[in-house]
């Protein structure tokens, strides 16, 4: 068992069921994330999704880490990032049978996305039916201007490190 918590500092903390901190993560520095407002996992806890105050969704692969969390080589990999809403994501979940992520925002919209690619399928209340089979059409909601970004494996996400900066008075400066 594993517990995950999302924080205003954009930090994700993974805890053992005994309450021990196992890992601290920050989303990839190349994308603005802001405070994290929602998180969920798939049924097997292999995929972690987080939503942010700025409307971004981040997809993390935790499979190798969960196999052996003590092995440093088994890192949690940030795989995908996309702008889902123009405002805060308040809830999200993954529907594994259809391979869909559902996001909700404070703007009142609920949207569907392809779980592996971040492609937009549409929003609840639209006139047309959802076409969940065609992921080749790159469409975006009207308030979002950027496509999903695949995080390359060689890109390093930032791990929160404890660094102490002593305050020293430098009269010359």
Automatic annotation (TrEMBL):
Which residues are in the IP5PC-F beta-propeller domain?
Answer: 34-114
What Pfam families does UniProt report for this protein, alphabetically? Answer: Beta-prop_IP5PC_F (PF23754)
SMART domains, alphabetized: WD40
Q: Which UniProt keywords apply?
A: Repeat, WD repeat
WD repeats span 82-118
Q: Does the keyword Repeat apply?
A: yes
Q: Which PROSITE patterns match?
A: WD_REPEATS_2, WD_REPEATS_REGION
The answer to whether the entry has keyword Repeat is yes
Cross-referenced InterPro entries:
Beta-prop_IP5PC_F, WD-EF-hand_domain, WD40/YVTN_repeat-like_dom_sf, WD40_repeat_dom_sf, WD40_rpt
Return the PANTHER family for the record.
WD REPEAT-CONTAINING PROTEIN 64, WD40 REPEAT DOMAIN 95
Protein name as annotated: WDR64 protein
Provide the taxonomic classification: Eukaryota, Metazoa, Chordata, Craniata, Vertebrata
Tell me the gene name: Wdr64_1
């Amino acid at each position: 068992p594993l517990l995950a918590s999302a924080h205003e500092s954009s930090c994700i903390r993974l805890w053992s069921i005994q309450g021990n901190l196992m890992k601290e993560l920050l989303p990839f520095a190349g994308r603005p994330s802001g405070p994290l407002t929602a998180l969920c996992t798939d049924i097997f806890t292999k995929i972690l999704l987080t939503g942010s105050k700025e409307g971004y969704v981040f997809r993390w692969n935790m499979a190798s880490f969960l196999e052996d969390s003590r092995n440093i080589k088994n890192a949690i990999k940030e795989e995908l990032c996309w702008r889902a809403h123009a405002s805060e994501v308040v809830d999200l979940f993954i529907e594994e049978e259809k391979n869909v992520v559902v996001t909700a925002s404070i703007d009142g919209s609920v949207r569907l996305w392809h779980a592996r690619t971040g492609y937009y399928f549409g929003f609840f209340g639209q006139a047309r039916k959802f076409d969940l089979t065609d992921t080749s059409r790159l469409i975006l909601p009207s308030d979002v201007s950027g496509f999903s970004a695949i995080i390359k494996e060689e890109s390093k996400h930032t791990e929160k490190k404890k660094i102490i900066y002593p305050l020293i008075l430098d009269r010359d400066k």
